[in-house]
Design brief:
Order of helices and strands: HHHHHEEEEEEEEEEEEEEHEHEEHEE
Shape: globular
Helix content: 25-40%
Amino acid sequence: MTPDDALLARYLAHECTPAEAAAVRQWIAADPDRVRAVERLRAAFDAAAPPHERPDVDAMWANVRSSHRVALPATRRRPFPVGLLAAAAVLVVAVLLDRAITRRSATHGAVREVATSIGQRATIDLADGSRVILGPRSRITTPEHFGEGPRDVTLDGEAYFEVHHDPANPFRVHAAGGVTEDIGTRFVVRAYAGESVLRVAEGRVSVARGGGAPVALGGGQLTSLDAAGVASVRMVDTAAYVAFSDGRLVFDGTPLEEVVGELGRWYDLDVRLATPAFADHHISASFTGLAEDDVLGAVAAAAGLRYTRQGRTVTFSRARGIQ
């Protein structure tokens, strides 16, 4: 089965039925060139095109067909429903911008790299059938021939992994000097530069860092490993830790020091605390699609503070009338 334009667009937009998605995946897996092409299209779809844009679909497909940089099937043109316009748009974006980059590493050979910027997410379908949802300001690299033997990826930032489990070829995430190895299927790894701990939440995994003993993590648990590999494990509502994967910003008793960093990654803001004493304030809140000033106001209220803003710089300080 060769997918037509509409089916391929629905696949990129996650709008296929399970049977359609399985058929498209089978078609993709039959040719390594298709795997690489569709990975580039997927990354660009999730990272490049603003959802409010309504592009000229016919012109975009003409550009895709005339390009030799991405090999796509020569299929029959069909009209697109309005809801699929963004999916069609990203095919040209993938060709022109090529956000999935192949580069040469002196120590590990050729690797593929996908990165998101402020406020962006990206969904990457890997050649082994696994899926990665990359959080804002995050970067993931995979070997050029990923899936041929043990599956190792490197992460800087945050990502949600849905892993095709294969005990013979372990799936390992290298981040912040630690290694997270898949035991079950789904899990989150968080390791932003500048944060002192490696965090893993949700699925069944084994985690080790800094030469420390591996820690087994089960469903509903969160582990944080410090630089020495010392782990703390606790039960959490993992929904808060996977919320970024569907565009929600959720804080669940989160220290304000961590909150301000997250606001900067989601809204392109330089967020500061007027005094370090505010860092230990904890807040619980959930945001979906709100304007940045609405989010800032809600965070300030939850922390018992106020905020002032000068351009892109935001400062949380003591609320008026409170000593």
